[in-house]
Amino acid sequence: MQNIFRLLQKFQVVLLFLLFQILCFILLLSGDNQYHKSSIASSSNAVVGTVYEFSNSVTSYFHLEKENQQLVEENNELKKQLLSRQIQVGKMFVRVNDSVFYQQYESIPSKVINSSISFPKNNFITLNVGKELSVNSNMAVIGTKGIVGVVIASSNSYATVMPVINANFTLPVRHANSKSFGRIFWGEDDTYLTATVIDVPSNVAVDIGDLIETRGSDGMFPEGIPVGKVLSVSPVSGETYQIIKIGLIEDFSAIYNVKVIKNLKRNEQLELEKATQEKFQ
User: Fold this and answer.
1) Are the CB atoms for 206 and 186 separated by under 8 Å?
2) Is residue 125 within 8 Å of 152, Cβ to Cβ?
3) Torsion of CA 243, 245, 246, 248, to 10 degrees
4) Which pLDDT tens digit goes with each residue over 158-191?
């Protein structure tokens, strides 16, 4: 016991200093000083983002083969799209169907540095891009095969994404063959590999293996982006729609490279729709 008292007496100045520092920190957070609170929150977000990025750089080393395979598949798909826009008119001349002048969407390459698939409701994804590259909320996120989710928040260098496998996620979609509209959500009985589509009319013939794709009406996703393929179809008694279970195109346990999509005309669309609704109220 005497040794403890001697130790406390020896370091009493240091201990007193630490006590005052803790009290000052508590007073800063418990008061109404919003500036200090926001500064501390911003700093902590930056630290957490840096930790995620470092952790991802280590783990991604062991997934290089899978990442490269994803990039190869994406490059092959882009080459197909490019060839479809080129028409050979001679041995040395090619006419290109160039639509840059009418460009509506911008693509911002990004990398997943953190993600979750185990939470029952609120799964999320963290990206290594943020406001410095004009990444803001309500922007679509697309993987190498299909849709991933929607940006819900961003800091200067990072962004968080609500993926399809989140109980709060919903999106207008359509049955690719019939172009009939529906809505996707993540149900209680879904896993990170599946999702549920409703509101597709009962009289529409939906077969196993059919593609479900984005409708493009939300102002975030371009139309025709793959979402998933039909696993099962169940009629709903007394309703005019059917319940469709789909297998998601993207494997959310192995997402590395994604693109954030910015719709350059989204605000124009939303403003026009709002004005139209107000006109008829």
Assistant:
1) no
2) no
3) 110
4) 999 999 999 999 999 999 999 999 999 999 899 9
